[in-house]
Design brief:
This protein has 4 helices and 4 strands. The protein has 127 residues and is α/β, with parallel strands linked by helices. The protein has one domain.
């Protein structure tokens, strides 16, 4: 994460525009990470959960992005599922994932990939 933060900071320091879209694979805000499942009750499961969450992303990224007023929108990934846009610190966070379509984990709201994908598309006005 230190490398990601350094690279994004370097790029944002060079930006001369007032409306920046950041695209990252990592989850940039703690509110966007998975909540702890109720079955996580033992110290071992707690360590595993913390490790998985740490690999997904970091609030440090969200804090960095919030320190640049020109950042207006962030597209992030790394987690599956369909998530509505969220706004934190004046930044709109979007996850365009189509979700998982498996018998054990069915997240699609539409009958096929193309319809699910089209439903997830977002048009941003960066002017």
């Amino acid at each position: 994460m230190d490398r990601v933060l350094a690279q994004i900071k370097q790029a944002l320091d060079q930006v001369q525009t007032s409306n920046v879209l950041v695209i990252t694979h990592f989850v940039p805000h703690r509110q966007l990470l998975w909540p702890k499942p109720v079955r996580v009750k033992t110290p071992r499961h707690e360590r595993i959960y913390e490790m998985v969450v740490a690999m997904m992303g970091s609030q440090r990224l969200g804090d960095l992005l919030a320190s640049y007023p020109q950042v207006k929108d962030v597209i992030y990934g790394h987690i599956h599922g369909v998530h509505p846009p969220q706004i934190y610190d004046g930044i709109t966070y979007l996850n365009p994932a189509v979700g998982v379509n498996k018998p054990r984990n069915q997240e699609w709201q539409w009958p096929n990939f193309m319809q699910q994908w089209q439903h997830q598309l977002v048009v941003l006005d960066l002017t």
